[in-house]
Design brief:
homodimer, 338 residues, alpha/beta, 6-stranded parallel beta sheet
């Protein structure tokens, strides 16, 4: 992981915008390539969570203007194609991921934003000067809507019992989302005390420190032997996915948002026999912003506690290292003043 | 497959009832053990779809009485345990499958029915003398609610585009159910003309005769390149499950009810990346009877066309053989007069 100088981005298409990044975040999913990518001389861009100020717009851009403070979801999308209209912005016909192909990563000084009208969302002007507000808004780029997607996909409804597998930033946002959606009981699985404490502030009614089969047993003890109606799988490992299926009740649903890295496949036979559903996937963040952003803006919903480390651009490699060894939960990269 | 003489069933528990079977059905899922079971001298009971007359009840049975014409769903269940109350009767804590352990199969002259109050549903008295009405009610034991479960699990809502994979009795009932739930378009995948004709009568707006990738391509052509919102997987083979996932749109849902016999696992990576959900499983028939039975009783819903072969008890082996070679769709076993 290194910080390098690259050419400034320029408009390439009339639907592009250029954003000078003020804040970027480092994501748990960034750690997969951090761990797996062999060192090479060329390198590639990375980062998919950023907020910044529009500095240039193409001729066809109409919803944002130079000077606007904007937020980008973790994929770009036109917000008008048939799949965006169905709420699956991550499958947008004109969309894609930051840092792939000729598209910039979000952890940098500036980004060329494709299909800017569909991608960028304007933030309240206050957020330029109110750093605490901006900090609360930053998780809207990914982890808050991703936790929300887990809760929605798992079918959390008022009165439901929910389990959240994973005490990372997404899992904690899943607690916040499940609680917001009216879950009567939110059981957080984790073992890091400071993270569990954030989980409690976010609405966890119970915490389970065991792992694997023991964790599922503990969930069953808390749920009259049934298991949970809704399980939010926010990790993606073989073990965490197995725990999710062990903790859900028959007829319940696992909502998964942790990028799956599975040694064995999904438990098809048990899913069928127990009527356990599986929904979710790469979170279509854009779909949820109109619903979630106003609540964060007015303080009803505050995911800021998941950001526990601030670095500048030169501190990005350190941020990866500390998130990798779990001494930091999630890093905010302060790139420039708005 | 043979017809054998076994002891008459007797009450064993105060919650049991004895039912003299008037009609039984042969299910596509009965063909799995028919094909796979090695011949042995002992044999085991089979059949899980039956209607009959109550001939004896235990001391604690209160909802059915001697002389009642009743229907049994394809699993028995107490209808009161926490999982039944959640609508997952197939996971009932006091439930189980017909023909397993010391429980009789449904293809026979009489059956001891455990937890009779929860299991048995009374039929309109007319059905004792009105053979056509009884014929229409018989598929409520399994295939009609199973097709309905596929449609509900796949998330069919008014205006949705649905695909049904499989032109067996369950698939055809899936067409009926999807149409009843308001699907604007119901695309049936199959190649048997007489079955496709039933599918059209049941509400299929389109039929696709291709298989596999070609079938999914045909679905995409019919859906502006998107695929279907909801896919009802009513077969359970490796190929049919693959076709289901290929035919569903990103963000859509596969509802599966075909007992899975998969050579390879579920497509976890594609499901996650495309936000394709998977729900369903062994259909909790009892859950749906209060909703579906009145509509069949008054003629609004008529699944009788899926029954295209009548046999008596001695004809059961022939019925299996003809369903196995697909020359019959689904057999009704006329066991005795009501």
């Amino acid at each position: 992981m290194r910080v390098d100088t690259v050419p400034d981005p320029v408009l390439r298409r009339p639907t592009d915008a250029i954003v000078r990044v003020t804040d970027a975040l480092v994501c748990g999913s960034d750690l997969w390539p951090y761990r797996d990518c062999p060192p090479d001389r060329v390198g590639s861009r990375i980062g998919h969570e950023f907020v910044g100020v529009v500095t240039d717009v193409g001729a066809e851009v109409s919803t944002v203007a130079v000077g606007d403070l904007v937020l980008a979801p973790f994929v770009y999308s036109d917000n008008t194609c048939p799949l965006c209209l169905k709420g699956v912005h991550t499958s947008c016909r004109n969309g894609g991921f930051w840092g792939s192909g000729d598209v910039d990563g979000g952890q940098g000084e500036a980004v060329r934003v494709p299909v800017a009208d569909g991608t960028l969302v304007r933030l309240p002007a206050d957020a330029a000067t109110d750093d605490a507000l901006r900090r609360s808004l930053l998780p809207l780029t990914d982890v808050l809507p991703t936790g929300h997607h887990a809760a929605v996909s798992a079918g959390v409804v008022p009165g439901a019992t929910a389990v959240v597998v994973g005490d990372g930033a997404v899992g904690l946002c899943g607690v916040l989302a499940a609680s917001r959606l009216g879950a009567e009981r939110v059981i957080l699985l984790g073992r890091n005390e400071s993270r569990l404490e954030i989980g409690r502030r976010f609405g966890a009614t119970d915490v389970v420190r065991e792992r694997g089969v023991a964790a599922a047993d503990a969930v069953k003890e808390l749920t009259d032997g049934l298991g949970a109606d809704a399980v939010l799988e926010c990790v993606g490992t073989t073990d965490s996915v197995a725990t999710a299926f062990a903790a859900v009740r028959d007829g319940g649903t696992v909502g998964w948002v942790g990028v799956p890295h599975l040694d064995k496949g999904l438990p098809a036979g048990a899913m069928f026999g127990r009527n356990v559903g599986l929904r979710g996937g790469v979170a279509p963040v854009r779909r949820y912003l109109d619903e979630l952003l106003p609540e964060v803006a007015d303080g009803r919903l505050d995911p800021a506690p998941v950001l526990d480390l601030d670095v500048d651009l030169d501190g990005v490699p350190d941020a990866y290292s500390r998130m990798d060894d779990r001494s930091a939960l999630k890093a905010r990269v302060r790139v420039s003043a708005p």
